[in-house]
Amino acid sequence: MAVGKSSLVLRFVKGQFDEFQETTIGAAFLAQSVCLDDTTVKFEIWDTAGQERYHSLAPMYYRGAQAAIVVFDITKQETFDRAKAWVKELQRQASPNIVIALAGNKADLADKRMVEYEEAQAYAEDCGLLFMETSAKTAMNVNDIFLAIAKKMPKNDPQNPATAARNRGVKKVNIDLRFDAV
Fold first, then answer.
1. Which UniProt keywords apply (predicted)?
2. Residue 107 is part of a domain; what is its CATH number?
């Protein structure tokens, strides 16, 4: 644990960083809207606990998710290995259209790096994932990873009057954040 998943969410939603962020128990829900071109994208984010004892609850959160961010700590190889297991699980059990992003967090600690950028990038490409290194502490690429997810989401069908009337320029994106349980 302690890969910075909750810190990424708090940086994105509230623009805040707390050096001593409390461990998530169960799950926390946050929401944030951003404008993308002529659409407002509403992110509904489930920040789920990564400890192994909560693993059995995970499908409850990612079952209806349109996107997931799998976070690992670039200074701990075992978190990258565990992230791969989460990606496999999502690809096997989540929606077939789910957008999966891989975030190599704690890029501000590059001098302590144990996972090379190229290794994570190659893995992401092989698996069809979005990939960015992020830093919740410095805000590096935090907004960018969410915007990249929003851009990769399928567009609403403007020909369908029910969809157009219901959404009126708002695209909801349910995000499930996954992270390592070391």
1. GTP-binding, Nucleotide-binding
2. 3.40.50.300
Q: Would you state the structure tokens that stand for residue 126, as one six-digit string?
A: 């092989």
Q: What is the pLDDT of residues 105-119, one digit of tens each?
A: 999 999 999 999 999
Determine how many CB atoms are found less than 10 A away from the CB of residue 117.
14
70-101 pLDDT per residue, tens = 999 999 999 999 999 989 989 988 888 899 99
Contact assessment for residue 179 and residue 83, using Cβ atoms and an 8 Å cutoff: yes
Starting at the edge strand found earlier in the chain, the sheet holding 170-179 runs 27-36, 39-48, 170-179, 67-73, 99-105, 130-133
Domain for residue 162, yes or no? no
The domain total for the chain is 1
Is residue 7 within 8 A of residue 15, CB to CB? The reply is no
Dihedral (Cα; 13, 18, 22, 23), 10-degree rounding: 60
Spatial distance between the Cα atoms of 179 and 181, rounded to a whole number of angstroms: 7
Within-domain flag for 139: yes
What pTM was computed for the model?
Answer: 0.79
Asked, for residue 80, whether it belongs to a domain, the answer is yes
- The parent domain of residue 101 ranges over 5-17+25-156+168-179
Neighbours of 127 (CB within 10 A): 15
